[in-house]
Structures are given as structure tokens and as C-alpha cells.
Specification:
It is built from 19 helices and 14 strands. By secondary structure, the protein is of the alpha/beta class. Strand 3, helix 3 and strand 4 form a beta-alpha-beta unit. The N and C termini lie far apart (67 Å). It binds adenosine-5'-triphosphate.
Length: 454
């Protein structure tokens, strides 16, 4: 993105000089000779960097007051003060008030460019860190207050500080990795690394390289493996059932010895790592089949923890939907939409075989594809067909969904639609209709009257 630098100085030749130097290096510039023009320029579009003269003769307010206003409105916008020889102290106090740096007149072109580039880089990094923090903090939060979820959160709090090995089981996409992260975040190792090794995504011949690292024969690591990287923290072994049997034996040795050797290595590497494993498969079955070592299972599964499928905690669906809408719109810039109660009812009734991951993907798709006015709630008829079609709908009611109505109202709508269609089908002949639908003629008459049909 091109930079857009605003230069605020009461002296036209200084403004011209600074703008010239910056433009020669490809920066975009704007200038302002007084504080009101400056505020108007900032209002027009937020610049990426500001050079601000401390002494502004002929302006309504002085440079420092303008700095306070800018920092109040745009705390992340870097401001570099331009100071004369006599007011270095003021420049220093400006830094205390939030300025990024100051440059003293007369200045060399190199120094001006260096300060500008450093300020732009620092502000870019700050923005990136904030985005990452926001995203990390957000994805790390376990959303849901259903009984099943509250239970899970309580268990996490209890087991997190204990350091014991945990085996998390649960269907794919149910949140096992998020649970492992939550355990790490509330453990005494929270300042250490959280390393993920997904056994399902690594070919058996690469597994030991990834887990133990490699050595070049001289005793030092060529590649550091996941175990070594996780020293002082937590190693999350995702889909542990996919570990080759031979590697299982080696992991068992690590658990017993608290040390291992790198591939092609001679040195003994000592590590202090807490292992959390996960499985979407039934490990007892894998053990019976002979594909998973029972002794390793018992070592890894000191505390077994089960993450329920989304279908077992449908109460969480509305909260999750709103959480994902916020999260997705923040990271993609898509507008935040509300979801109507009819659509929520359908989402809640769906079985979600792909669990929370599938729900999240559908929310994302909804936000991208949702038609209509942004301020209008997303209704049931906007849902992807495979979600909505599994449930009864009322085709002639403009998208209103039966699932959003109490039984009495839903039944009335259904009866009206059904009987109207049957009466039409028999050309208005009530006797034939009554015979087909299995009612007495007189009872059908009364029914049609009460429903306002005919
Ligand atoms: N309780 C929750 N609150 C908020 N987001 C959640 C929750 N559970 C899961 N998610 C989100 O759902 C997605 C899938 O979760 P995760 O990767 O933890 O599932 P998993 O069970 O480890 O999946 P897999 O079995 O495929 O490895 C992620 O985007 C995660 O952030």
C-alpha cells in the first residue's frame, strides 16, 4: 500500500522541502500550513504518517495540542515532530505525549527518510501484532454455555494446572485442538510454546523427522523436531491413531525416559514437555485391532476428556453463530449481519456431521453469499439448500420457516396448504377429497371453514 504522509508546517518552503524528499522516494504526500487545514485533511482520509511542526504561527492551536487531538482520534497513527533548535525539550515532551519521534531543523534528507520509514514500519508491525492478537485471542476462546460445554470448561480448569497427560476424544471438527489450547493457556506452561503435530497430515516416513528432528552426525541439530520445539510447553499430538506403530514405540520410550535421540543422532536430548493427544477414532477398537499400542494408550490417556459433537449441545448454536459472524467479519471485512430466528431454528435443528468446523464454514458462506439489504436479518430461505432442505418448510409463505413457529401455528399452516392442494387436486369435490384424506365429509367441511379455505 502506498504511504500517505501529511506534512504540517507553517513555513511553505519547509513543507515543500519535506514533501520533495519523501516524494522522490515514492511516498505520497499532502501538506497543511495550519492546524485547521491539517484537521480537515485528516478528516478527508486518515494519513499513514504525519510530520508536525511544534511551533505553528498563525494557527488556532499549537502543535502539541494538535498532537493530543490526533492521538485521541487515531492512537495508532504515527506522528513525527519537527522541532527548531530551541525547542528540543518540547519535542521530548511530545514523545511522552505519544509522538513517535522528532526531527530537528535543519535536517539532512537521509535522516528524514530514515525516520519516515522507521515510523511507517513500526506502525505496520503494531497493526499486524494487534490483528494477530485479536485473532489469536478470539479463536482461543471456547464459546458455548450449554450444560455439556460448561461441564467441559470446568474439567479443563481442573486438569490444566496438573501437568498430567490428557487424551482428548471427539468427532472431527468438534473443537479438540481448541480444548488443548485452552488447557495449555490455563496451565503453568502458558508462557511456553504450544506445538501441534498432526499425525494424519504427515507421511509415516517423515513422522520421526518431524517429531524428533534430525542431526548431521556431529551432535548438533540440523532440524529441530516438534518435541524439542515444545520444550517447556505443550506438544499436541493430533490424530494420534495415525502414528505408525514403530513411532508409537519410540514415543513410549520418550515418555519413560523424558529424553530422545534425533534421527541420525548420537546426542541425548532431554526435554520437559506435556503431551496432549487427540483422536476422532475409537482407540480401544484400534487397540483390539492391533494398530495402536495399549501401553502407549495408558501412558497418554492419564486423563481422558471427551469433546461432545455439536448435535449433543445444540443450545450453543446461536452463540456460536454470532461469535463466528463477529470473527469472520473482523478478519474479512464482510459486513456483520444478524440471523433471523427462523434461520437460527433451522441451524439449531441441523445435525452438523462436520461439527463446529462445518457450522463455521456455513456461517462464512452465508456472509459471503447472503443477498439483500445488509441491515436485513438473514432468513431461513437464504440458508444453503443442504442445511434447510432437510427440514419441513412452508413454500408459500415467503420464506418463513415452520421451524420458527409453535406446533399449533405450524400445524395450521400445514393443514391449510395440504387441504387447499388436495381440494384443488380433486377439482373442488369435497366428497372425493374427504375420502382421500380419510375424513368424514362434514368434518372436512368444518375444518376447511375454520382454516378459511374455499
Ligand atoms: N467451543 C468453540 N468455540 C468457538 N470456536 C470453536 C469451538 N470449538 C471449535 N471451534 C472452532 O471450530 C473449528 C474446528 O475446531 P478444532 O480444529 O479445534 O477441531 P478438532 O476437533 O481439533 O478437529 P479435527 O478433528 O479435524 O482435528 C476451529 O475453527 C475452532 O476455532
Amino acid at each position: 500500500m502506498p504511504s500517505d504522509i501529511l506534512i504540517i508546517d507553517d513555513e511553505a518552503d519547509i513543507r515543500g522541502l519535506v514533501a520533495g524528499i519523501l516524494e522522490d522516494e515514492g511516498h505520497g504526500t499532502r501538506t497543511a500550513g495550519d492546524t485547521d487545514t491539517a484537521l480537515a485533511e485528516i478528516e478527508k482520509r486518515r494519513p499513514t504518517l504525519i510530520f508536525l511542526d511544534i511551533w505553528l504561527t498563525g494557527s488556532r492551536i499549537d502543535g502539541l495540542t494538535l498532537l493530543d487531538i490526533i492521538k485521541g482520534q487515531h492512537p495508532d497513527l504515527p506522528v513525527v515532530m519537527i522541532s527548531g533548535h530551541g525547542n528540543i525539550e518540547t519535542a521530548v515532551s511530545a514523545i511522552r505525549r505519544g509522538a513517535y519521534d522528532y526531527i530537528e531543523k535543519p535536517f539532512k534528507a537521509d535522516r528524514l527518510l530514515m525516520i519516515a520509514e522507521r515510523a511507517l514500519e513500526a506502525s505496520k508491525l503494531r497493526r499486524e501484532v494487534r490483528d494477530l492478537r485479536e485473532r489469536a485471542g478470539d479463536t482461543g476462546r471456547l464459546v458455548g454455555s450449554s450444560i455439556a460445554m460448561s461441564h467441559l470448561k470446568q474439567t479443563i480448569e481442573r486438569v490444566a494446572p496438573t501437568n498430567s497427560r490428557i487424551m482428548i476424544s471427539g468427532p472431527s471438527g468438534s473443537g479438540k485442538e481448541l480444548v488443548a489450547r485452552a488447557i495449555h493457556e490455563s496451565s503453568l506452561r502458558m508462557d511456553g510454546p504450544f506445538v501441534v503435530l498432526n499425525a494424519a497430515a504427515i507421511t509415516p516416513d517423515r513422522m520421526e523427522h518431524e517429531l524428533f528432528g534430525t542431526e548431521n552426525g556431529t551432535g548438533s541439530a540440523r532440524n529441530v523436531g516438534a518435541l524439542e520445539e515444545a520444550h517447556g510447553g505443550t506438544l499436541y499430538l493430533d490424530e494420534i491413531a495415525d502414528m505408525p506403530r514403530e513411532t508409537q514405540g519410540k514415543i513410549l520410550r520418550v515418555l519413560i525416559d523424558q529424553s530422545f535421540q534425533r534421527v541420525n543422532g548420537t546426542t541425548k536430548v532431554n526435554v520437559d514437555v506435556r503431551i496432549i493427544s487427540s483422536t476422532a477414532r475409537d482407540l480401544e477398537h484400534e487397540i483390539a485391532e492391533g494398530s495402536f499400542r495399549e501401553d502407549l494408550f495408558h501412558r497418554l490417556s492419564v486423563v481422558p476428556l471427551r469433546v461432545p459433537a455439536l448435535a449433543e449441545r445444540r443450545d450453543d448454536v446461536p452463540e456460536l453463530v454470532n461469535h463466528f459472524i463477529d470473527q469472520i467479519s473482523r478478519s474479512t471485512g464482510l459486513p456483520v449481519r444478524t440471523v433471523g430466528s427462523d434461520a437460527l431454528a433451522v441451524l439449531q435443528a441441523h445435525d452438523w456431521p462436520g461439527n463446529i468446523r462445518q457450522l463455521r464454514n456455513n456461517v462464512e458462506r452465508l456472509l459471503i453469499l447472503a443477498r439483500g439489504d445488509e441491515s436485513q436479518a438473514i432468513s431461513a430461505d437464504m440458508l444453503p439448500p443442504e442445511i434447510g432442505e432437510m427440514l419441513p418448510t412452508t413454500p408459500n409463505r415467503g420464506g418463513e420457516h415452520l421451524m420458527s413457529l409453535p406446533l399449533r401455528d405450524a400445524r395450521e399452516i400445514f393443514e391449510r396448504e395440504y387441504l387447499t392442494a388436495q381440494v384443488n387436486r380433486f377439482g373442488g369435490n369435497i366428497s372425493r377429497t374427504a375420502e382421500f384424506v380419510g375424513m368424514e365429509r362434514s368434518a372436512l367441511h368444518r375444518k376447511l371453514k375454520s382454516l378459511g379455505v374455499g
